[in-house]
Write a structure and sequence with these properties.
With 183 residues, this protein is of the alpha+beta class. 27% of the residues lie in helices and 29% in strands. The protein is built from six helices and eight strands; from the N terminus they run βαααβββαβαββαβ.
Length: 183
């Protein structure tokens, strides 16, 4: 039987699950996400992620029991948004992060995004391939790591991003917090 994964907007009730998922991640995964060996999700970030604020798109993936991933994009000015993803270690390399990036970017574009920024640790350079279908990727390297900027075309994200994403799993669904399927 294939497990159903649900991708939905992050809400305040997800805070304990997000914290538990973060704690279950390896130090390497947390450093890759935060660029620091954080033991906990930064409280200001977490409060903003679950606030529903228009300038912060945050999605969680759950297996109906636990939060297993969090992806977000935060508006930083103009049409630019900062992108971040954390997937629990045992669920990495299965297409979940890529699917979450697609869903977050699709929503950010709906809210006016024309560009993305993502800071990556050098060990995560392979993630540039996830960004390439979204638009023109400009990358630079310095002492802090790899910095990627994506200049997205004016076409809707759904036209541009859904072509390259593998399905999460058979039966996976994107749902609103109340359980309904978005239109």
């Amino acid at each position: 039987m294939t497990e159903e994964l649900v991708v939905r907007k992050a809400v305040p009730g997800d805070v304990p699950g997000i914290e538990a998922m973060h704690s279950a991640c390896s130090l390497d995964s947390r450093i890759a996400r935060w660029h620091a060996p954080l033991r906990a999700v930064p409280s200001r970030y977490l409060a903003d992620a679950v606030s529903g604020r228009r300038e912060h798109v945050a999605l969680v993936a759950t297996d109906r029991r636990d939060v297993i991933a969090l992806a977000s994009a935060v508006h930083v000015g103009g049409g630019s948004w900062d992108l971040g993803v954390l997937v629990r270690d045992d669920r990495q390399r299965q297409g979940l992060g890529t699917s979450l990036v697609t869903a977050v970017v699709t929503e950010a574009v709906r809210r006016g995004a024309t560009g993305l920024r993502a800071d990556l640790t050098p060990s995560r350079h392979f993630l540039l391939a996830v960004l390439q279908p979204l638009g023109r990727v400009l990358a630079s390297v310095d002492g802090d790591g790899l910095h990627a900027r994506v200049e997205m075309a004016a076409t809707p994200a759904t036209d541009r991003t859904t072509r390259f994403v593998r399905p999460l799993r058979v039966g996976s669904v994107l749902r609103e917090p109340d359980g309904t399927t978005p239109r």
